[in-house]
Amino acid sequence: MIDRARIQIELTKLRSGERLFRLTDSQSGLSLERKVDPTRPVVNQKEYLISIFEAALAQAELSPA
């Protein structure tokens, strides 16, 4: 099971005014970036991206080194 505490989440505002989510896991080196859709609630997008990121981390842990 993935520990959510080790996932770092950044919300960055770009010069163009757009916002960007960045999720990283320093232990595995995995990261995910995605633009925030201004027409959808940020909380919903954040939870969706965390679920995708957790699935990718789980897949990475199962893959042979």
Task: Write a brief caption for the model.
It is built from one helix and three strands; from the N terminus they run βββα.
Would you mind describing this structure in some detail?
The protein is α+β, with helices and mostly antiparallel strands and 65 residues long. It has a single domain, classed as Double Stranded RNA Binding Domain. 32% of the residues lie in helices and 29% in strands. The chain has one helix and three strands; from the N terminus they run βββα. The chain has one helix at 42-62, and strands spanning 8-13, 19-25, 30-35. The chain has a three-stranded antiparallel beta sheet, covered by helices on one side. Strand 2 and strand 3 form a beta hairpin. The longest helix is centred in the last third of the chain and has 21 residues, at 42-62. The chain is elongated.
Helix percentage:
25-40%
What would you report as the Rg, rounded to the nearest angstrom?
A: 13 Å
- Regions with little confidence, pLDDT below 50 for 5+ residues: none
Profile the largest sheet. Answer: 3 strands, antiparallel
Number of helices, where a helix is a run of at least 4 consecutive DSSP H or I residues: 1
Work out the strand percent.
25-35%
In spatial order, strands of the major sheet run 1-2-3
Shape: elongated
Number of domain modules: 1
Distance between the termini: 19 Å
CATH architecture: 2-Layer Sandwich
Give a count of the beta strands, DSSP E runs of length 2 or more: 3
CATH class: Alpha Beta
Average pLDDT confidence is 90
Estimated structural class: alpha+beta
The CATH topology corresponds to Double Stranded RNA Binding Domain
Listing every helix as H and every strand as E from the N terminus to the C terminus, the arrangement reads EEEH
